[in-house]
Amino acid sequence: MKQYYLYIMTNKSRTLYTGVTNDLERRVYEHKQKLVPGFTAKYNITRLVYFEVTQDV
To answer: Is the pTM of this model over 0.85?
Structure first.
């Protein structure tokens, strides 16, 4: 059965970002290292504050 993660990340200014992934550890690493250009890299979203596991995207 597939497993997905709904997650919320933030920065020092408390800007929130929500996402869904099937590999939370990899995705948080990508955000922290700014490997994907876009919102999270621009706003320095690097702190995971919440996640939950779900079987449905």
So the answer is: yes
